[in-house]
Design brief:
- The chain is elongated.
- It is about 40% helix and about 20% strand.
- The chain is built from 10 helices and 7 strands.
- The mean pLDDT is about 90.
- By secondary structure, the protein is an alpha/beta fold.
Amino acid sequence: MIKLSDRLQVIANLIDKGQTMADIGTDHGFLPLYLFERDISPKVILADISKGSLQKAIDNVEDKACEEENTDSAFQFRLGNGIEVLEDGEVDIVVIAGMGGALMTQILGTNLEKSKSFKKIILQPRNAPGKLRFWLQHNGFEIVSENLVREGKFICEILEIQPSGNEPGQDQVQNGQEDDIKYEVPVSLLIRNGDLAIEFVQRKLNTEINILENMGKAVEIDQEKVEKTKQRIDYLQKLLNNEVR
């Protein structure tokens, strides 16, 4: 049976028994295979924009699940871009993992009505999480949970989201811009992630301190950027000291 990485295992744990799912950018197809093998998801859709990656998933399914019953009806393979390969509400859960946050906003924003037709979407951005959170909050989605998980030298973020019931622009949104540190490192990250969240914030703080130090060595100092970096450092320090609510 398939054994998942810690990152994929956290994603799998967010999917309940009986829920159907689509894995966008499936690559090797390990997550859908795991969910099928353990009788969690009766139907899994493996989708990828890369023909080569999708073929790897097909080969893995044929190798790992060839002796299982109902394999043909349980596994579906789709070659195409993002959620364009899905029908509205075709599955309960959509997983988009290992892509940049900006790309995720494009995938979901291409057809907002379709994106909101799924009960839940699980996102694991490789970068630009602040841009992603900003976009979600301003386009009618709510973040149900935020999880951190270690993968090698990285700490990955996993967002569980669902439609908020509001149309874009009607949400009670925070002030600020998409590059605001409050979107990049929200207070909510510390609620359920324990010591890993503290390490995550400390890493961010160390990065910002190094940036500020390097700014001071520049021939021409951009005072506006210096002040902004100082504000980011202040926020992260207060976050670590539980002074932000």
